[in-house]
TrEMBL record, chain A:
Name of the protein in question: DNA primase
Keywords: DNA replication, DNA-directed RNA polymerase, Metal-binding, Nucleotidyltransferase, Primosome, Transcription, Transferase, Zinc
Organism from which the protein derives: Pelodiscus sinensis (Chinese softshell turtle)
Names of the cofactor(s): Mn(2+); Mg(2+)
GO cellular component, one term: alpha DNA polymerase:primase complex
GO BP, sorted A to Z: DNA replication initiation; DNA replication, synthesis of primer
Upper classification of the organism: Eukaryota, Metazoa, Chordata, Craniata, Vertebrata
PANTHER family: DNA PRIMASE SMALL SUBUNIT
EC code(s) of this entry: 2.7.7.-
From TrEMBL, chain B:
Protein name per Swiss-Prot or TrEMBL: DNA primase large subunit
Protein's gene: PRIM2
UniProt keyword annotations, A-Z: 4Fe-4S, DNA replication, DNA-binding, Iron, Iron-sulfur, Metal-binding, Primosome
Organism: Pelodiscus sinensis (Chinese softshell turtle)
Gene3D superfamilies associated with the record: 1.20.930.80
The protein's role, per its UniProt record: Regulatory subunit of the DNA primase complex and component of the DNA polymerase alpha complex (also known as the alpha DNA polymerase-primase complex) which play an essential role in the initiation of DNA synthesis. The primase subunit of the polymerase alpha complex initiates DNA synthesis by oligomerising short RNA primers on both leading and lagging strands.
Quaternary state and interactors: Heterodimer of a catalytic subunit PRIM1 and a regulatory subunit PRIM2, also known as the DNA primase complex. Interacts via (C-terminus) with PRIM1. Component of the alpha DNA polymerase complex (also known as the alpha DNA polymerase-primase complex) consisting of four subunits: the catalytic subunit POLA1, the regulatory subunit POLA2, and the primase complex subunits PRIM1 and PRIM2 respectively. Within the complex, POLA1 directly interacts with PRIM2.
Location of the DNA primase large subunit C-terminal domain: 315-485
Cofactor annotation: [4Fe-4S] cluster
Keyword Transmembrane: no
Cofactor comment text: Binds 1 [4Fe-4S] cluster.
Taxonomic superkingdom: Eukaryota
């Protein structure tokens, strides 16, 4: 790691009353810690590594102060699924729509590893309605903003703003990225069907076909679908109907046509916020922050147990406080007051429900460390 | 001749950069292009002519990345002629791109013809091509000076240069391609037959337009991700483990990608050294003229600042806003909110039509607080970004309103967004409904949708202008939403003076490009690096999760 890498990293604090303090940088992690204790920020964001120390940016020539490196980050936000969610809207989530998030993580993570060759990435629950992904590979941290948006575009299938209805259009030959994502999908499809009974527009509006079908203008089966859809009671049946129709249609026509998948993808495919990923200097909330609105701690997600991850079960700030109080009371007598503060703190968190999440984080860091040592010490075959 | 200068005060010598007092860099190479105050000497020129070997070294290929700036002195007359010829050429490149399929026979023959006529290198094999190559080299660098000045200019220039380069690269024989790739350090390892066989299905499916037989016969290269950006961005290449498997036929994309990055960096650097050039009173008018004969004013200077009252905006949005802005305005009024892409596009447009900073703050605030944002939150967060766009915060860049090209090509809208160009980014069906609700006659709608289908979005917009303003010939070629507004206002206030008013001698050039439109179907459109960087500061605070 380059010298003073840490010193050139931007941290931003959000203080009480939404006061933002940007471009802070610190000589050492200890200094950062001290400042955090002093300022008591509500939120901490991590920014880029700059050409100069961000705190001294005014001393360098205009234009010379440039963001040089940052983790490639992705932000998936449940609000971006509002047009296909019926259970919740905007900041709300429930276990139903969280399934969409789980699918998104699976699809993006697979592509990051298999397609982009990413070695180190950390998935973090934001504390409210979304997840972040931090890609930390050395070479990728140096990517330009153009490359970052290219990656997001590669990973994006659902395109179009509020003025378009059909947002997924597949080409005749399906790119391996999509094919492989679809495989992930069929795994998860059972869940999807079961969990979101609204998937094909059943709930509440049994008689009307899902809006997305309106956009299927070019599709030859549209007319008959429009007629028969209302007769089907739930999304599983509708899906079957759609699929049968399409199979039949494909058998009789030479042109490739993937309407049923396009619809399915429009409902379930990950929706990335390109603006968060694109800018090298863009800030993203630090893992382990407490979400100001929910009090939940933004914790890393262990991909091994992604299906068990429950956004409502993560530690909250108030929960942690009482856990700590309880733990301290328990061994209050044994507690040696002379023990150095820092040491005590490290031990303390282990008594709380945060411990397993810290473990996930530590494992991630250790992995990266091992890899880097292997890199510098090992042979050139890497 | 577009521009006839007064006799240059220092004789016929062009002094671009004064090597003693101001050392400036032309390009990314860090090389200096010196302009001494030395008199032009015929002797030197003669020597240069005779030094045949060295001339060969200078331009070993008909094609280049323009890494080294020219170092010779040239006369003002030659400077001017070169500049104008290249401008003609780029203009033609633009027009051809709109009228023909890029790379079609007609496109190629027309472009080839023009290259020959203007004495640019057109026969790639020609040996004694020194003069043409020299002209190509020098004229490219001159236009860099004129076209580095704003983001819109850079975008235009890069686009045309890339198209020109593509044509010329495609004319190269296989042997020359290999030579050139070596020359610019872009040779890659080819994959073995075994590997290819193993991956054949994936390779076939990732590369549109390839047949199985073609895959078998083509060479595929292993290319690192950054080099293959333009290919994977549009999912046109197979990625495995951080490597792109690029067929020989797509190597051009890699070359163009590389060239674009270099050119865009170089332009940014040139822009920084611009003050020195601008202080040269012989060059400044010429350079300005060169750039203005292009994409017109950038609407950054507001003649009308403060002349628009906020109460008028609703009415104006119906009468004089182009569709993109009308849509944003309506979304804002309906939702009391706009996501950042919309805020920037619409905010800068409003700035361009003359809203002062104070008005803008008031305008946005009064709308946002009707929604979920309270006054306090507005003042803390959103207000910053508005001041920022007026150049009062952060990098203090005075952001200019977006041109159509920018709106059409970059940052497409996604879920919940209302920005973009409705002709480009709306479902045709919805667009049709919208036009119907705006009472556009059916024949007009059909015409507009035809243009949209042909990807002539700006022409579609012009048609819309025509129909809504009830004129037969709109008399301008549309390339900017603020231009749309200005023209509409002129017309509605009855005070539109004919062409005279369109300032400067650019009208002839403008007419030539009446077909201006943007073909964004081309898979390798620019990725707008600069634009993204500029936008960054505006939105950094608004990631909510
Ligand atoms: S063509 Fe230009 S002015 Fe017209 S709607 Fe599109 S972006 Fe707006
Ligand atoms: Zn829900």
């Amino acid at each position: 790691v380059a010298k003073n890498y840490f010193q050139r990293r931007e941290f931003s604090f959000t203080l009480r009353d939404d006061i933002y303090v940007r471009y802070q940088s610190f000589n050492s992690p200890q200094e950062l810690e001290k400042e955090m204790q002093k300022m008591n920020p509500y939120k901490i964001d991590v920014g880029a590594v700059y050409s100069h120390r961000p705190s001294q940016r005014n001393t360098v020539h205009m234009g010379a102060f440039q963001a040089q490196e940052k983790e490639l980050v992705f932000d998936i936000d449940m609000t971006d699924y509002d047009d296909v969610r019926r259970c919740c809207s905007s900041a709300e989530i429930c276990s139903k729509c969280w399934t969409l998030m789980t699918i998104a993580i699976r699809i993006i993570d697979r592509a990051l590893v298999e397609d982009f060759g990413v070695k180190h990435r950390l998935w973090v629950y934001s504390g409210r309605r979304g997840v972040h992904c931090w890609v930390c590979d050395d070479s990728i941290r140096k990517w330009s903003s153009a490359l970052r948006s290219a990656a997001v575009e590669y990973l994006t299938l659902v395109k179009g703003g509020s003025e378009s209805v059909k947002k997924v259009n597949l080409a005749d030959s399906i790119h391996p990225f999509i094919r492989r994502s679809l495989l992930r999908f069929t795994d998860a499809l059972a869940d999807v069907k079961q969990v979101s009974a609204d998937l094909l527009g059943c709930r509440g509006q049994v008689s009307s076909p899902p809006a997305v079908l309106m956009g299927v203008n070019g599709s030859p089966v549209r007319e008959s679908l429009l007629r028969e859809f209302p007769k089907k009671r739930d999304s599983v049946q509708r899906w079957e109907l759609l699929k049968t129709k399409m199979d039949k249609h494909r058998a009789s026509s030479k042109k490739a046509c993937h309407t049923e998948w396009e619809i399915m993808l429009q409902y379930c495919f990950p929706r990335l916020d390109i603006n968060v990923s694109r800018g090298v200097g863009h800030l993203l909330k630090s893992p382990f922050s407490v979400h100001p609105k929910t009090g939940r701690v933004s914790v890393p997600i262990d991909l091994q147990c992604l299906d068990q991850f429950d956004p409502f079960a993560v530690p909250t700030i108030s929960g942690l406080c009482s856990e700590l109080d309880a733990a301290n009371e328990e061994d209050g007598e044994k507690e040696n007051e002379a023990e150095p503060g820092a040491k005590r703190r490290t031990r303390d968190y282990k008594k709380t429900s945060l411990a397993p999440y810290v473990r996930v984080f530590e494992q991630f860091v250790e992995e990266m460390d091992k890899w880097r040592k292997g890199w510098s010490g090992g042979g050139s075959e890497l | 001749m577009l521009y006839s200068p007064n006799p240059p005060p220092l004789g016929r010598i062009l002094h671009l950069y004064n090597s003693t007092s101001r050392k400036r860099s032309w390009g990314s190479s860090g090389q200096r292009f010196h302009l001494n105050t030395m008199e032009f000497s015929r002797e030197r020129r003669l020597k240069a002519r005779l030094a045949g070997d060295r001339r060969g070294d200078l331009y070993p290929h008909s094609l280049q990345f323009y890494l080294q700036p020219p170092t010779e002195n040239i006369s003002l007359a030659e400077f001017e002629n070169f500049a104008i010829d290249r401008l003609k050429l780029l203009k033609l490149v633009e027009n051809l791109g709109v009228s023909y399929v890029k790379g079609s026979e007609e496109y190629k023959s027309k472009l080839g013809h023009e290259l020959r006529k203007l004495k640019f290198p057109y026969r790639v094999l020609a040996e004694d091509d020194y003069d043409a190559r020299r002209k190509d080299h020098i004229s490219h660098f001159i236009l860099r000076l004129a076209y580095c000045q704003s983001e819109d200019l850079r975008r235009w220039f890069i686009q045309q240069e890339i198209d020109l380069f593509r044509y010329r690269f495609n004319e190269l024989t296989d042997v020359l391609v290999q030579k050139f790739l070596k020359y610019v350090n872009l040779s890659y390892e080819a994959i073995s037959e075994e590997v290819k066989e193993k991956l054949s299905v994936q390779l076939l499916n990732s590369t549109p337009g390839l047949s199985g037989a073609k895959v078998e016969e083509l060479v595929f290269y292993k290319v690192p991700l950054p080099d293959a950006m333009d290919l994977f961005r549009v999912r046109r290449v197979y990625l495995l483990n951080g490597i792109a498997y690029v067929p020989h036929t797509d190597i051009i994309a890699i070359v163009l990608n590389n060239y674009r990055i270099k050119l865009s960096k170089a332009l940014a650097l040139t822009a920084r050294s611009l003050p020195a050039v601008q202080s040269d009173e012989r060059l400044q008018p010429l350079l300005n003229h060169l750039s203005h004969s292009y994409i017109g004013p950038d609407y950054s200077i507001q003649k009308n600042t403060g002349k628009i009252s906020l109460e008028l905006i609703d009415a104006l949005s119906v009468k004089s806003f182009p569709l993109c802005m009308r849509q944003l305005h309506k979304a804002l009024r309906d939702n009391h909110h706009l996501r950042h892409g919309g805020r920037i596009q619409y905010g800068l447009f409003l700035k361009g039509i003359g809203l002062t900073l104070e008005q803008a703050l008031q305008f946005w605030k009064s709308e946002f607080i009707k929604g979920k944002v309270d006054a306090d939150k507005f003042d803390k967060g959103y207000a910053y970004s508005i001041r920022h766009s007026y150049g009062k915060e952060g990098k203090r860049t005075d952001y200019t309103p977006f041109s159509c090209m920018k709106i059409i090509l970059s940052n497409p809208p996604s879920q919940g967004d209302y920005h973009g160009c409705p002709f480009r980014h709306s479902d045709p069906e919805l667009l049709k409904q919208k036009l119907q609700s705006y009472k556009i006659p059916p024949t007009g709608i059909t015409q507009i949708l035809e243009l949209v289908k042909g990807m002539h979005y700006q022409l579609a917009c012009q048609k819309y202008f025509q129909l809504t303003h009830d004129v037969d010939d709109i008399g301008f070629s549309l390339n900017h939403p603020n231009q749309y507004f200005a023209e509409s206002q002129k017309l509605l206030s009855g005070g539109r003076e004919v062409k005279k008013e369109t300032s400067e001698p650019e009208s002839s050039q403008q007419k030539l490009s009446n077909q201006k439109s943007t073909n964004s179907s081309s898979i390798l459109t620019s990725s707008n690096t600069d634009a993204d960087i500029e936008l960054e500061g505006l939105d950094a605070y608004f990631t909510e999760d």
